Amino acid sequence: MLKVIKRTVSTICVILILSSVGCAGLISGKYGTIVPNKDVTESFENYQVSPNLNYYISGSDVYPNAIIGIDKSYTLDSNLWKEVEFTPETLKNLVGDMNAKVTELNETLHGFNILDNKGNNIGDWYSILSARTSVKMEEDNRIIIITPDIDTYKENGDEEKRSRNNPPFSP
Predict the structure, then answer these.
(1) What is the C-alpha to C-alpha distance for residues 126 and 151, in angstroms, rounded to an integer?
(2) What tens digit of pLDDT does each residue of 16-72 get?
(3) Which of 9, 51, 90, 156 has the least C-beta neighbours within 10 A?
(4) Domain boundaries, the chain
(5) Dist CA 63 CA 45 (whole Å)
(6) Which residues are bridge partners to 58 per DSSP?
(7) First to last CA, the chain
């Protein structure tokens, strides 16, 4: 009887371990990430356009929710990102417009490296910190990058936050 219980417990443990390893592989196996990078921030702030990247914007043409640059050896698999041909001057104008927008919200823009599921740098991301995304690696160097929420620049409808940040004028 004790042998049967030990065997059953051992079998359950093996199944749980294999299941958790399998799920971890499914969860993290094909997904990359973005990580903050000061050099990426500086390259956008200095309007540097890399010839090795294809650039895209999400959201408004004037105040995009994010700008991404994807290594030319990858294909962005999305119809939600708009491809843009940047020159230093057009990037300067767009970054300036984004800065004007985020200044109204007491936010700042930040640069990030886009990493594949193996930790390799495959591009750049530029947005406010609260912009959310996910990066999924597909076959044949195709990637899916989820666009940030359309209301990225809104203050989550939080009137209390707005009044704390911009108290009413008192004579």
Answers:
(1) 16
(2) 443 333 344 445 579 999 999 999 999 999 999 999 999 999 999 999 999 999 999
(3) 51
(4) 30-150
(5) 15
(6) 66
(7) 85
